[in-house]
Design a protein that fits this description.
With about 170 residues, the chain is an all-alpha fold. The chain folds into 2 domains: about 70 residues, no CATH class; about 80 residues, Arc Repressor Mutant, subunit A. It is about 65% helix and about 0% strand. It has 8 helices and 2 strands. A two-stranded antiparallel ribbon has the order 1-2. Helix 1 crosses helix 3. The longest helix is centred in the middle third of the chain and has 22 residues. The chain is rod-shaped. About 10% of the residues have low confidence.
Amino acid sequence: MDFGELVKRFSPYLKRLSNKVIIPSRAIGQDDLYQEMLYHLWERWKQGEFEDKNDGYIRGSCYFHLKNYLRRYTEKVNLISLDEPFGEEGTTIKDIIPDHAAPFDVRVDDALFIQQMKAKELTRREKDVIELLAQGDTLRDIGKRLGISHVRVLKIRENISGKFARRLQG
């Protein structure tokens, strides 16, 4: 069987299936699910797995692949909102790291994004600044507490913002 014929035959089913599934996250859409099932078909077709199988088997294979894909995917995804408060003080990420250049949608593929940023990608000085910002200190107050100028604190905050933006884009 030619792969084009396989896609033509199962494409309506795959589109209906991708539209029926409840997606637990905004980070993935129906088109993504459809493409994932097409990829599954392609991989199985290359291996010759569908040579002697009936349509019910192939549809079931796509269905179970999709269910497993969603299960694995939702275990890894964690969406972080710029406006949703975290911590005891109710501070938001937008309060800590304002991005005046352009708004961006924060979609993250692991549950420990902020902790990983703090642990791996922020310098000790950046960690100090972000903690003091989270406490509500002004740039001048932070500068006085750390023994640096408020302009330097502003630069450090911009560096943190840049690191977050690069991490979210990459």
